[in-house]
Here is the input.
Amino acid sequence: MTWRTHSKGRLYDANESTVVYFDSYSGDTHLLTDFAGFVVQQLEPRPLTTEELMHRVADSVDPDDIADLAAALTGVLEELVALDILTRD
Amino acid sequence: MSFLLQQLLLEPQRILALDNNQLTHALSQARSSRLLGSLACEMQALGIDKQLPQTVDRHFDAARLIHEKQKRDLRYDTDKIQLALNSVGEKMVLLKGAAYLLAELPVGRGRFITDIDIIVPRHRIDAAEKALLNFGWQTGDIDPYNDQYYRKWGHEIPPLTHSKREITLDVHHNILPPTAGPDVNAGLLFEQLIEIQPGIFTLSWRDMVIHSATHLFHEGEFHHGLRDLWDLDRMLRDFPERDPQFWEGLVSRARELQLTGSLFHGLNYAQQVFGTPLPDGILEETGSWTRAGRKPLMDFLFLRAFRPDHPDCKLPFTGLALSLLYLRSHYLRMPLYLLLPHLVRKAWMRQFEKDKEETH
Amino acid sequence: MQLLKHLPPDEFSRRLSQGEIPLRIGPYVYNLQSNLSGVAAGIRTLYPDFTLAGPDDFVDYNVALLSRNALQRLRGEAEFLFDMKAPFDAIPIGQAYAFLEWGMNWCVSLHTNEYLKLHAAVVSRGDCAVIMPGTPGAGKSTLCAALGLRGWRILSDEHAMIPPNTTDVVPLCRPVGLKNESIEVIRRFSPDAVLGPVSKETHKGVVAHMKADLHPASHDTKPLRAKVMIFPRYARDEPQQLSPRRRSDSFILAAYHSFNYSLLCETGFEAMKTLIENIDCYDLVYHDLDWAIGAMDGLPDVQGEQ
Here is the structure.
């Protein structure tokens, strides 16, 4: 499965546990977890498959936390689709 | 000071010669006629907006920003509407403002919209409504009487709203209600659609003009009279360039749709108010002997309605002319036996609502 | 430079009834018209120190509060008019003054987009402006009025107007709207508070406005740097505290309190980002006005200004 953003949005990251994301397609502004923000940033340059995303995420996550990563990633992707920030092909 | 706005729309550079008092009135007129965005964009196209003092241009800028935002939101909303309609095999056909904006026509330049209008064939309207409801649109608060009225006598279903968006969607199956008199065969409209973007359609150029004229003379919204006439002027100057045969088929098309009366008034008043260039003989071709006889009265009524909706521009009796037109408009839409119960019922319901509030 | 109070009373009344009272308010000129004595009295009480624009100046907002015809007078009703059109239903004459003030807010809320506009009170100490967004009932106006009565400058009770890509706020000083108990609270808080007409039974309850241009610099039009954003919340039964809040959250909350953040799209996002990155954000829970003012006086950004 491939995931992509509708458009190139804008991100405000103040080094907190949440980031602000402006979706220029819908015009909506969202408060996302930093993890969700990271996922969106990975997808903005080009669409990625779930596996590709897993690799990127795994590189930047503490190995101790990796066990639940797949589930967390799936959950976040679903939520981002529900917010209409992402679509899946 | 009167007719200032019409002059400015046609020749925006005139604004540079106005003093502060005249500028105050020009802005005030444009704003109350819902033409501030249009004037702003006409000025911008000529590059004269930046020659105005910033304290004046900021108001035009504010209107341009509203227009730009509406256009962006429209792209998003129509994407979603298109998905919903395509899910039941229906295509999206935009009417009026939404069509002007999305097709990037000169008539859409700076124009504000208050809702999105689409049209689907009558026998597909239930399927379309269900699909839209599945995609997050919902029927607004409407009492059963009004709901039934819409469905039985209207040319559209009750307006839909979206939980996450700030826009109303009007789904039509015709451009006039079945009770209006002329029996428009809406099926004809679907035979000549224009695909402005993949999967996004509008009526043909001729049908857009005829519809706009019809709307102007049947909907009872004469407070936007000047704006609607400006729409017509923009289209009548633009479409002949897109289709060299535009004028030739216009009258016969109106005849086919049984809307020559509306077309006659639209062409006539666009020419009188904005000097819209028309081919020789076209008014005679649309006009009938009876229409010519009624012309002085109609001029009295309409030329008042087409002034900017602003006290600077009121001729004596404007209030009277507007309420006569409102009656005329309702009369055009519905046979009297229908009109009266509806108005009575509406008045009664308002009273009822009030009583209810007061006893609470 | 002619101030409103320099007009003799009869000339004021005549010009007001004819719609010839153009006032300079912040960056705008409002032209006022009314044929109601209560409205005239309110304007004389609350706007005497405002400058009259000249007859040849450009007018941004033409507003009127009129009882327009015999029927309206008979019913004791009046209408707010903008460009001589009534955007709202008629209201009882007793609410006319409050409605004029709301209408004047509405003009800015709806018709200007050269600034990012937050629904917020703005006050300043020295050169440091503090933005206080608030939901209705959060007590922002009460706190704003109290700060004004203790030497702070009131820049606005309703609109924080921020030119995009700056951290500036443009002053738009007009009377502060007080509701219900707040009116008594402010009367008790200071005998110096000058209040206008009391409008009863409005959709917001009892409403009165307080004269807000109490500071020598009240009518300066120069923008001030905002250094702090405070989200006030009046809570009778909670411990009072002023505590830092996160920027991302504050961004969203301020955007929620904005009239045109969404409309401005990317410009709005960048404007908000610039603002939030460069100021400190706080939550303020209070029930005692003196305590709240003391806490604000003690903020690091504010202290140096005293």
Notes: The mean pLDDT of chain A is 89.
